[in-house]
């Protein structure tokens, strides 16, 4: 029985690679890569909180608020906004290179074993 090609089957094109580099990684490095990066979440949260706090601070500095209760609400929102913006900002600053350091460690292992920078052996001139 020969199977006829359906018109909906995709055409598959294979391109040959000149060289292939395989990196062996540890379980801890794999888990770090699986976890992914939380840096963007920290940065977005910091920017949002600091923007809200800045808006309330500008409102406090440029307008007169006759009600003491409204003034206190603005001060509290401004204070909490700055504190809650600085905290994830510091977390972002501390963790901003976590995945880059894991991949750099994996890449450094290849050159530490004595492999040339150009594994194909061809000159790069």
Structure description:
- By secondary structure, the protein is mainly alpha-helical.
- The protein has a domain at 37-111.
- The protein is built from four helices and no strands.
- It has helices at residues 27-35, 39-62, 68-95, 98-112.
- The longest helix is centred in the middle third of the chain and has 28 residues, at 68-95.
- It is elongated and about 80 Å long.
- The model has no long low-confidence stretch (mean pLDDT 82).
What value does the average pLDDT take?
82
Parts with pLDDT < 50 across at least 5 consecutive residues:
none
Derived from helix and strand composition plus strand pairing, the structural class reads mainly alpha
Number of helices: 4
Give the DSSP E fraction (strand runs of 2 or more residues): under 5%
Cα distance, first to last residue? 55 Å
Overall number of strands: 0
Instruction: Specify Rg, calculated over alpha carbons.
Output: 27 Å
Helix percent band:
55-70%
Strand count, sense and barrel status of the largest sheet are: none
Shape descriptor: elongated
SSE sequence, one letter per element: HHHH
